[in-house]
Design goal:
Structural class: alpha+beta
Number of domains: 1
Radius of gyration: 19 Å
Number of strands: 10
CATH topology: Jelly Rolls
CATH architecture: Sandwich
Distance between the termini: 53 Å
Strand content: 5-15%
Helix content: 25-40%
């Protein structure tokens, strides 16, 4: 990345609060609906519609950098999660579908390790609106912290809590790299573009987003209740992983300690329910 780009990302202001960062730790997904303006969406779509268009060239396009990669709403989220001076993408892909396409299986991208850290973010951008008929990408919130072999999730179909990227043009989806995702059936004749890239961290984690002095670390709710992972042992296993990821992002890994049983972080939300679920 050029020194100019490094200076540009160093000047970005964070936009997330403690609660919003904790929510990202729970879901691995943050949706920004329609944040990229229509004028940008139109020229990006037209560019991708040209014969021989190379989406990779967009990472070097100053207009795309200014209007998409460093758009304040997008860059503010990235700055909150990756810190100052984050690295802009070195590559870009376009999952382009023209006409009907059969569904593809759930998968995780190469290099996924499900660690309780956040050193990179995978981002998706749609320059056109997405309807359910257009085969919008499906994400499974909470799956980014669940270790699994790629071949073990390929057999799954629809899963409780899956989220479709049905959204207006200009929407951006910021995800943890290891989140499970797939393409459902595309049944219409339209063209669907889905640009995809990665931002990287360049500095140690620190709680330098819109932090609140009175945020209660010990009393915060680290449970996640609205996905495939919300039932029984799956929910029980997710709680310490979420808490550990949040502490890591805060630069407080050395302060993260659990005592086991139904103690913290389970006890921060409802001490009784965790001991009952483990029986």
């Amino acid at each position: 990345m050029t020194q100019t780009a490094l200076r540009a990302t160093a000047d970005i202001k964070p936009t997330l609060t403690d609660e919003e960062v904790l929510d990202f730790c729970k879901t691995g997904l943050l949706t920004l609906e329609g944040v990229i303006p229509d004028t940008t969406n139109r020229w990006v779509f037209d560019y991708l519609d040209e014969e021989g268009a190379d989406p990779h060239q967009l990472v070097r396009d100053e207009r795309f950098i200014d209007e998409v990669l460093l758009h304040p709403a997008v860059a503010g989220v990235v700055r909150s999660l990756l810190g100052a001076g984050f690295q802009l993408p070195e590559w870009m892909a376009n999952h382009r579908l023209v006409g009907p396409e059969a569904a593809r299986y759930w998968h995780i991208d190469a290099g996924s390790d499900f660690e309780r850290a956040c050193n990179l973010l995978q981002v998706f951008y749609i320059p056109q609106s997405n309807s359910i008929e257009m085969g919008p990408t499906l994400f499974l919130p909470g799956s980014h912290l669940v270790p699994i072999a790629r071949e073990d999730i390929e057999r799954f179909g629809n899963l409780t809590g899956q989220v479709a990227t049905t959204a207006p043009a200009g929407s951006v989806f910021v995800t943890a790299y290891s989140i499970w995702h797939r393409q459902p059936d595309k049944v219409d004749q339209s063209t669907r573009n889905l640009l995809k890239w990665v931002y990287w961290r360049t500095v140690p984690p620190a709680r330098d987003w819109l932090a609140r002095p009175d945020f209660d670390f010990r009393g915060a709710d680290y449970s996640f209740n609205s996905s495939y992972f919300c039932g029984g042992h799956r929910k029980w296993q997710s709680v310490p992983r979420i808490a550990e990821m949040f502490y890591w992002l805060c630069g407080k890994s050395d302060e993260f300690h659990t005592v086991g049983g139904s103690g913290w972080p389970y006890s921060s939300s409802d001490p009784g329910k965790w001991s009952q679920q483990r029986q």
